[in-house]
């Protein structure tokens, strides 16, 4: 799963959001947006924004700032057992969330977005010949002479 928040238009410079973990303030994130991903979403958009690669068997959340306004703002990995609440903060007025590249929702300052792992699971059949590390190495061209 991949979830991200972006500003409402290209005209605005940054979006400001606040993130709470289990009702405790984690921090304010200012920049082009913030990505909240599970391991499955970590090798897509989050990786491009500077987030780490996370193996799919782990149950966790990854928060990756997108082009943060403050260079001290870094990705953070959290337990998958937490509840994350994201809000828009002033001076931002409106933002858009995107879930797995499909859904856009407009959110305002007074809105709260809650993110947690589902109690439902999905079982995926993977051929025995397909190895996660082989696929990763092939897609990222690890060990190849790229020049």
TrEMBL record:
It is an enzyme of class 2 (transferase). It comes from the Bacteria. Keywords: Kinase, Transferase. SUPFAM superfamilies: NAD kinase/diacylglycerol kinase-like. GO terms for biological process: NAD+ metabolic process; NADP+ biosynthetic process. Its EC number is 2.7.1.23. InterPro entries: ATP-NAD_kinase_PpnK-typ_C, NAD/diacylglycerol_kinase_sf. The keyword Kinase applies. Signal peptide: none annotated. GO terms for molecular function: NAD+ kinase activity. This is NAD(+) kinase.
